[in-house]
Amino acid sequence: MAVAAPPTIQTKPLRERLAPLVIPTVFVLIFATVLMVAPASWPKLITGILLPGLTLAAIYFMISAGLSLIFGLMDVLNFAHGSLFMLGGYCAWTCNVWLDPNYAGHWPITIASGNLRFIIGLIVGTLVGAAVGSLIEISLIRPLYKRPIYQVLLTLGLVFVFDALVRTIPAWGSLSRAPIKPPMLTESLSLLGRRFPSYSLFLICLSVSLAVLIALVLRRSRIGLTIRAGVQDSAMVEAMGINVRRVFTGVFGFGSGLAALGGAVAASFIGVYPEMGLEYQLFAFIVVVIGGLGSYSGAAAGALLIGLARTFSDHLVLETGLPTAIASASTVLVMAVVLLLKPGGIFNKN
Amino acid sequence: MQRLRPLLPLVAIGGLASLPFAFAADTTRFWQGVFIQIFILAIYALSYDLLMGYTGMISFGHALFFGAGGYTAAILLRQAEPPSMLIVIAAVIVVGATIGAAVGALSLRVSGVYFSMITLALAEIAFILFKADDPKLKPITGGEIGLQGIVVPAAIDATTYRLRFYFLTLACMVGLYYAARRLINSPTGRVFVAIRENEPRATALGYNTLHFKLLATAISSTIAALAGMLMVLYEKSASFEMLSVNLTIQALLMTIIGGIGTLIGPMLGAATIRLLDHGLKGEFMQALLPAWLRPDLVFGIVYVVLVLFFPAGLMGAIRKLRGKTSRSSVERLRQAMKPKAES
Question: Membrane-crossing residues (chain B) (predicted)?
């Protein structure tokens, strides 16, 4: 007599368990197709496409991580986040130029070592970004927590103010300024028989170590616990006797500082110009839309996807002779694909 | 006073129509030019208010619609044998509606700030594509120089017939204003407002809110495209500046200065901004203001102060003066911008 097989333990349906894999798979397929249309040798693939993609991802991550955390915690989408990125870039550039004793109009205090100037630039950029960010939160965002739509309108206005400010300051102006690399990171390394700039490797290492550090702080420390709890339900955290407002200011300042640091390191890579803020903010938006607003790991994954998508499309455009502007537009196509597949982003649980 | 109110529009239109004759003969041409720009921007602001003020969707890519209309007209008129003006207008309307619907279809899958972000991203992409000095794109878009030397049909040439063009734009503005007013008061317009007030409830009442939001985006985009076309006809050139985020901020600025969700407010806002800009750039103010205080900076700061302290704008102030206690537009819009994830 046949005994009916015991029912297997029903966990989540397979479809649901595989869901997080859908988007990475789609991307691997897209990248594979690109390589089939425009083949690349292994060394070219690694030093010409993958590592430059990671370099871009490193910058994208630094600007989008703060954006996403700030939104997750306090539901503020800071449209001026890119302006802080730009501000960091300009501060670092200024330190690199005006502290140089060989520069005609240098400051009273000068530093002979280019490496030291670079490091001071990074620190000053980050601190200025964090300070300005905290100030914005305290003075402008805080009165508007009851009117969220006006926070969005206000921060977009700040973009306008920062843009006009940068153009107004005579030392900065509307012109594009060439990047100044520190002497220790000017050379190219030999990698698989091809040259690869050491500065790009520095960018990747810096961004990865920051990403790991922040993840550790978020997961293992008390303040990280408060932030994660705040992302879930800030009213409840307040009820537990924690001053959420102070955490808000802290995270806003931290996110701004991270974006400014991103701008400061990017300044030695892409140079500085007034449009850089909006340009990179655009990528940050695409990154957080893909990763899911408010998700830290989503920001990291999104930055990776967009950075790689950008270099893959650059490669495709170069090999097939399409207009190069299409490569810059490709990231929006990526966003469109993700939105059509999963409107809430990759890491959104809802 | 109350009995005279229906006469107000007539007085306003009559005033604007007789305005060119109020200036001295040597300055009237210049002022006509200023007011032509005001009328065009008023149409643009009107289209923005239709979307933001009535349907509660904050698009940060409105310049895309304006630029789409402008570039469509410019590209068509630059052909060796330009098509008739009617065909150009039809093409602008079709392109405007299509782009609006396409942007809506992509961005309306999400709501709240997501909508703002995606519209901004899409507009920036258009900006990058049209600004690029790419050998393949440049013949079509003109790259950084833009499309210059557009030949406008002689009958509506703003250089030879400035006054005629003035009345043309005035007529367009008044016509589109009444069309928008009619739309808002129609059953469809009521659904727009219902979506702004409480989207889940509108859905529960059986309305397919996505369709209505798409419709609102398409209509708003069409009107903005028409404004862009008028701008190209007036300036006789199209440049990538038409697609820049500055132009979107201008729309926001006009809408907020004038008063969100009032239709007439944003149009007044357009006039305020143009005249203020003109005043700030004039010789008198230039001498008075320090050199670093550029008009852009002043506008940015004025905008931030307005958002912080006077969210109801000019129309809000007027209503307050007349002692009407209406629910503030702030309250009404709070609903609209709540992130979806929370509900």
Answer: 34-51, 63-80, 86-106, 113-130, 163-180, 214-234, 254-276, 297-318
In a domain, B1, yes or no: no
- The answer to whether A117 touches A100, Cβ cutoff 8 Å, is yes
Give per-residue pLDDT as tens, B305-322. 888 888 788 888 787 777
The mean per-residue pLDDT over the stretch B218-244 comes to: 92
Residues of A in contact with B256 (CB under 8 A): 153
Mutation site, B119, B124, B250, interface A, largest A CB count within 10 A: B124
**For residue B172, what are the domain limits?**
8-338
Amino acid at B102: A
Contact across the interface for A147 and B334, Cβ inside 8 Å: yes
B3 assigned to some structural domain: no
Instruction: Please count the structural domains in chain B.
Output: 1
Residues B206 and B34: beta-carbon distance below 8 Å: no
User: CB–CB of A149 and B137 under 8 A?
Assistant: no
**Is B48 in the A-facing interface, judged by CB distances under 8 Å?**
no
A157–B307 C-beta distance less than 8 A:
yes
B96 vs A171: CA distance, rounded Å: 42
Q: Any idea what the CATH number is for the domain that residue B132 is in?
A: 1.10.3470
Contacts of B58 in chain A (CB under 8 A): 149, 152-153
Q: Do B249 and A350 touch (CB under 8 A)?
A: no
Decide if B343 is inside a domain: no
Structure ipTM: 0.74
Quick check: A171 contacting B, CB < 8 Å? no
What b/e readout covers A268-294, taking b as 16+ CB neighbours within 10 angstroms? Answer: bbbebbbbbbbbbbbbbbbbbbbbbbb
Amino acid residing at B25: A
Q: A272-298, pLDDT tens digit by residue? A: 998 888 888 888 988 988 888 888 888
H/E segment holding residue A72: helix A51-74
CA A151-A157-A162 angle, to 5 degrees, is 125
| Rounded-to-10 torsion of CA B116, B119, B123, B124 | 60
